[in-house]
Amino acid sequence: MQNIAIVLASLLLLACSSNNSRYKDNASLERPPEMPKTTSNQTPEQVASEELAAPIRHRGKGLKSDVYRTEGSPRQLTIKRGFDESWSLLNLAIHHNELKVADQDRSKGFYYITYNGNGFFGKAASYFNDEYDKSTYLLKVEPEAEETQVTASLANKDEQNIPKKDGEETSDDPPVHVFQDKSENLIELLYDTLHDDLKDE
């Protein structure tokens, strides 16, 4: 009887020590998540707070909170993107509103825009108003850390493109024209377009 117990115990031990590959190969087992490596100067809490502070990209129509306005003079809007991406987004907003680009210089961050100052209704009003009623505005696009700031101002008199009306005499002196500064309207128009209308690729 004792011999039978020893034989059964030996067989049981042999069965437990079989070469079953599922216990040796653990490559397919789920691994625990790895903690991000931190530099010697940062604690895990600092790294986590920096990740939370990173801007969240909104997918869909409009940049939403990735664009905002700041009060002051001059009025400006800020895009939470680098210069290159902001320049492209601003270009899309300009074309979306069918604004005429009189001149541009990407290296200096300048856009010269012809605008009649009628905000949302500017597109419709442009069909009824002639070019004489439009003014040229200077858009400055400037990088600021991880963001880009855009300001608008009425271009100086020499930069204004003033066409002559029918019957006006040709003269070396530019015609007398009173320019109304509607740069705030232009910033508002671009902000609304960037915030709500543009497709965020």
Automatic annotation (TrEMBL):
The keyword Signal applies. It holds the Pfam family Lipoprotein_18. Keywords: Signal. It comes from the Bacteria. Residues 23-34, 156-168 have a biased composition (Basic and acidic residues). Residues 23-52, 149-178 are annotated as: Disordered. Residues 37-46 have a biased composition (Polar residues). Residues 1-23 form the signal peptide. The keyword Signal applies. This is Lipoprotein. It comes from Methyloglobulus morosus KoM1.
